[in-house]
Amino acid sequence: MRCTLLVALSLVAMLSAPAAEARRDGPPKSVKACSQHGNGCLVAPVRQGRFGLEARLKSGTWIPCRGDCREAIRQDVLDFWETQAERALAIGR
Questions:
Q1: Nearest to residue 40, comparing CAs of 82, 79, 70?
Q2: Helix H or strand E encompassing 82
Q3: Exposure string over 69-88, b if 16+ CB within 10 A, otherwise e
């Protein structure tokens, strides 16, 4: 009885390991983005949206991550005006 139980528990552990690894490889549950211009930091939940990862702002709005959620939050929220100025300079060159 004890051997059977031990074998059964071992099999369950071995079979559930790949499933746990697959969950770990999914999107992060949240990301922390920090300003490059002293505007603070923001921790935002992340979800898989229809067209890719999305991060939720404090207002409840979900924004697309465009590949990197930290960078999207930093550029679009924390350093919005600095990003706009950098883009305007790049266009003017």
A1: 79
A2: helix 80-92
A3: bbebbbbbbbbeebbeeeee
| Consecutive H or E run containing 48 | strand 41-49
Query: What does the alpha-carbon distance between residue 89 and residue 93 come to, in Å, rounded to a whole number?
Result: 7
pLDDT digits (tens, 9 = 90+) for 21-67: 344 667 789 999 999 999 999 999 999 999 999 999 999 999 999 99
CB atoms within 10 A of CB 33: 22
Are 79 and 39 in contact by the 8 Å Cβ rule? The answer is: yes
